[in-house]
Design a protein that fits this description.
Blueprint (H helix, E strand, L loop, with lengths): L9 H4 L15 H12 L1 H5 L4 H65 L1 H4 L3 E7 L2 E7 L11 E6 L4 E11 L3 E8 L3 H10 L8 E5 L7
């Protein structure tokens, strides 16, 4: 609700600034102490003090501008390390849960692939890596026609592992040409890259994820 009092309270429009204390201000104590010793205790400054005592008093005052930030930094590092150690169990449990969820998703996708495996499973003919992408050639099958942009999943039947998601980019006379879109197994991709072109795919099949359109 607006304040319609007149005259208005100046503090509402021009508030007094508040001091903000910073840890670095403690460093101002060093020149204060030195000035106090020189100007208010001249006898102490000019006294014949033992050399060791001068080093004990003088070195901390001289090196304090360097030591103080390092101590503050080490303290921050120690606090962060303690926080990470304390938070690691929760992070580890979260990572394990994500792995479990990912395995469940893979299992569900594999079940979908297996349910369509009979008539929809397609054979892989060739694979090669070009410009960082994995390209595969998929054999045509009358029962499972595909169209451009149709998604295809490559599955390893031995363990149900999803080897990668692909998209049909070209329809040729004897095969479909597809490029990876996500989830490509890095080990498989590395093997194909090293060999240049692969034509053997033990226990691997390609399964369309939806019915194709017109060829």
């Amino acid at each position: 609700m607006a304040d319609h009092r007149w005259p208005p309270d100046p503090s509402a429009y021009y508030p007094w600034p508040r001091p903000h204390w910073r840890h670095e201000f403690w460093l101002t104590a060093i020149p204060f102490l030195l000035a106090f010793i020189v100007f208010f205790l001249p006898a102490t400054a000019s006294a014949e003090l033992p050399v060791l005592l001068r080093f004990i008093i003088g070195l901390p005052l001289l090196l304090a501008p360097i030591i103080a930030p390092l101590v503050a930094w080490w303290w921050s590092v120690a606090r962060m390390a303690i926080s990470r150690i304390r938070g690691y169990p929760d992070l580890h449990r979260g990572a394990q849960q994500q792995d479990t969820d990912l395995l469940a998703i893979k299992a569900d996708l594999y079940d979908v692939a297996l349910s369509r495996q009979g008539a929809m499973a397609l054979d892989l003919l060739r694979a090669r890596v070009d410009d960082g992408h994995l390209y595969i050639s998929i054999a045509k099958k009358t029962q499972a026609p595909l169209a451009v942009d149709d998604p295809v999943v490559v599955v390893d039947q031995t363990d149900g592992m999803i080897m990668g998601m692909f998209k049909v980019t070209q329809i040729r006379d004897a095969d479909y040409y597809a490029v990876d879109t996500s989830g490509v197994n890095p080990l498989w991709k590395g093997q194909v890259f090293q060999q240049g072109e692969v034509s053997m795919f033990p226990n691997m099949i390609a399964v369309p994820l939806r019915e194709g359109g017109q060829q």
